[in-house]
Amino acid sequence: MKQVVFHTTGFPEEVLKLEEAEMPKAGPKEVLIKVTARNINPSDIMFVRGMYGITPKLPSSAGFEAAGIVEEEDEAGTFKKGTKVIFTAIGTWKEYVTVPAHLLIPVPNGMSDEVACQAFVNPLTAYGMIEASGLKSGDWLLITAGASAFGKLAIQMASQKGIKVACTVRRDDQKVLLQELGADVVINTENEKLPKVIAEHTGEGAHVVFDAVGGVLGARALSCLRTNGKMFVFGLLSLENIPLNSGLLIFKNLKVEGFWLSTWMESLTAESRQMAFKTIFTHLLSEKVKVDIEATYPLEEFQEALKAYEKAGRNGKIILVS
């Protein structure tokens, strides 16, 4: 089978190679899956660079999230051959993977592979963060990197709950798109002062911030919180840590909390986890929440896919298909 692997960490375009490998053998409680679609996430890039929370065991394939078809069943027959499934695993940029049966999620009828392969990480992160935030209708949420896949999902989910949403972008042409998705205020941080605009629209400031950027923008977003506000940090797109203002934290009684989907999922009961997936899939199938697809590439053309992923102004996901 074909797989995209790296033998040393570094920039993906430099270290990722297409290689032939033996077919993986599934254990008694595992399922062999033919992978049909994988989306490229920021976490995939950081993993290859050795900058993610999971350290790669080299050599390793890239990618965490995918959709596929059951090729061989587990011994209990939990998922029948031919069943379409959604899953996460370390290394999905390959033609076949083995995954423990209890970690698989059936693809709902009517959902395409291109949507299914991105129906886990970003939608569940947005859902989980909104649930954990305690935000109510009428409260203000500030989202950095509003035009990201996560940002667009969080805007849609929050606005459906009556939560007022402000978000940041770096280009004016992204404003209308995010407003159409439900954002109340969109700030171009390249030419607008974030704290000033937030104060003008919210009065006392945002109740909660979702920050995926870190660095200086993260610090500015923190300053936009009202007294007793909270920032959830779940990404580091700038690759720079947030320079925290101790005075703000003390005198406004602010809280900064990390959010990682894996940890949040582990905290859920089986019933809560089932409800989360049901809610997400209902949103996606009804298109109450929409995901964007920029382009699809065969796995063999992963280098072209990486170039498309890095392209400025991209508004949708880049998908690797088999």
Which keywords apply here?
NADP; 16 strands; globular; Alcohol dehydrogenase; 6-stranded parallel β-sheet; ADH-like_C; Quinone Oxidoreductase, Chain A, domain 1; Rossmann fold; 322 residues; alpha/beta; 32% helix; oxidoreductase; 7-stranded mixed β-sheet; ER; 12 helices
Question: What is the helix tally?
Answer: 12
Examine the secondary-structure arrangement and name the CATH architecture of the largest domain: Alpha-Beta Complex
Model regions low in confidence, pLDDT < 50 over at least 5 residues = none
Cα Rg = 20 Å
Fraction in helix: 25-40%
Provide the CATH superfamily of the largest domain: Medium-chain alcohol dehydrogenases, catalytic domain
So what's the overall shape?
A: globular
The name CATH uses for the topology of the largest domain is Quinone Oxidoreductase, Chain A, domain 1
What is the SS-derived class? alpha/beta
* Tally of distinct domains: 2
The strand count comes to: 16
Return the average pLDDT rounded to an integer.
96
What amount of the residues lies in strands?
A: 25-35%
Question: What is the element string, with H for helices and E for strands?
Answer: EHEEHEEEEEHHEHEHEHEHEHEHHEHE
Biggest sheet layout = 7 strands, mixed
Pfam family, one: ADH_zinc_N
Keywords: NADP, Oxidoreductase
InterPro entries: ADH-like_C, ADH-like_N, ER, GroES-like_sf, NAD(P)-bd_dom_sf
Protein name: Alcohol dehydrogenase
